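Deliverable D2.4 — example input (structure tokens):
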């Protein structure tokens, strides 16, 4: 059974620092896997907590419990429906009814209907008397209509509502939205802290080390990767398996996961080709050198495939094609 790790110490420190500052809107930005969602939720919990302390929310009051069970009347969470479902946040009655009746699939962007509900939420009186909070994540998943609706609310915010936007690609946000928020760049945790935190979640020291390496030192990505059933021992074997066209190793992987893993492998092969250090694998894992022009072309192909991988293709055939392309690229020796 998975243990739930404590809130990462680097997230707790950032939350404590931000809670000392005033402002009605924060934008938390940085690359994926650094805990933007966790930090955003920690801020919202502290803002709404009935007995907040120096360390943020108490974790014991009725407000904290309501957030834990996803029923707090003064917290509005704006996410793509796919994220809402994964993280246990309830959808609106209309959205849930549409999905139950199979009228559509869960949205992968923050729908303008959800933003309209949020605007109405902002205009209501606080139910618990501690003000209200709106959490938006990933903020870059707003479409143009949704972003403009949020912008109007940020420009003329009600007095008792605070916003926290969390983003993994903040450059995609409207400049006017960024300018109306106080910005915070996520802090990279120290390797020792990341390892200790992963071990608190139940990973062995060796597995934690390998999971971190496979995820570029990002501990929350590493934990999700491990919990998705990835065997860290298999990660080291991945380059050789792709070089021999071994589809069986990745047959049960999601297409998105395989494309991501191949991009990491291609990155490290390119890095080695220009005498740079690999990031995701050891030099011993990577196998023989590969032609730089072929690697460049493979990298471009993987980028194009990432843009189309959510289309309703046959997943098995797509995986076979990805592995075949990988084998062809990895067999191209430098002249």
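Example output (designed residues):
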């Amino acid at each position: 059974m998975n243990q739930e790790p404590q809130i990462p110490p680097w997230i707790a420190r950032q939350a404590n620092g931000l809670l000392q500052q005033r402002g009605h809107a924060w934008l938390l930005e940085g690359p994926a896997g650094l805990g933007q969602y966790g930090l955003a939720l920690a801020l919202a919990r502290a803002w709404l907590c009935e007995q907040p302390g120096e360390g943020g929310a108490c974790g014991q009051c009725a407000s904290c419990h309501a957030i834990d069970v996803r029923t707090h009347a003064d917290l509005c969470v704006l996410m793509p429906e796919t994220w809402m479902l994964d993280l246990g946040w309830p959808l609106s009655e209309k959205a849930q009814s549409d999905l139950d009746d199979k009228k559509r699939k869960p949205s992968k962007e923050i729908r303008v209907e959800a933003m309209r509900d949020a605007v109405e939420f902002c205009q209501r009186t606080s139910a618990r008397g501690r003000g209200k909070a709106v959490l938006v994540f990933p903020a870059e998943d707003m479409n143009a209509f949704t972003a403009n609706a949020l912008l109007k609310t940020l420009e003329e915010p009600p007095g008792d509502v605070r916003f926290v936007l969390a983003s993994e690609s903040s450059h995609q946000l409207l400049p006017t939205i960024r300018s109306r928020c106080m910005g915070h760049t996520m802090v990279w945790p120290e390797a020792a802290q990341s390892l200790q935190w992963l071990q608190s979640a139940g990973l062995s020291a060796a597995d934690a080390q390998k999971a971190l390496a496979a995820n570029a030192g990002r501990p929350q990505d590493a934990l999700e990767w491990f919990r998705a059933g990835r065997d860290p021992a298999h990660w080291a074997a991945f380059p050789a398996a792709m070089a021999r066209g071994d589809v069986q190793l990745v047959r049960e992987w999601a297409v998105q996961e395989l494309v991501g893993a191949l991009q990491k492998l291609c990155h490290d092969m390119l890095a080695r080709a220009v005498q740079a250090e690999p990031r995701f694998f050891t030099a011993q894992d990577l196998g023989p050198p590969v032609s730089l022009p072929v690697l460049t072309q493979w990298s471009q192909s993987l980028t194009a495939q990432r843009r189309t991988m959510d289309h309703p293709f046959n997943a098995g055939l797509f995986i076979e094609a990805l592995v075949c392309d990988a084998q062809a690229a990895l067999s191209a020796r430098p002249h």
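DSSP finds 16 helices and five strands in the chain.
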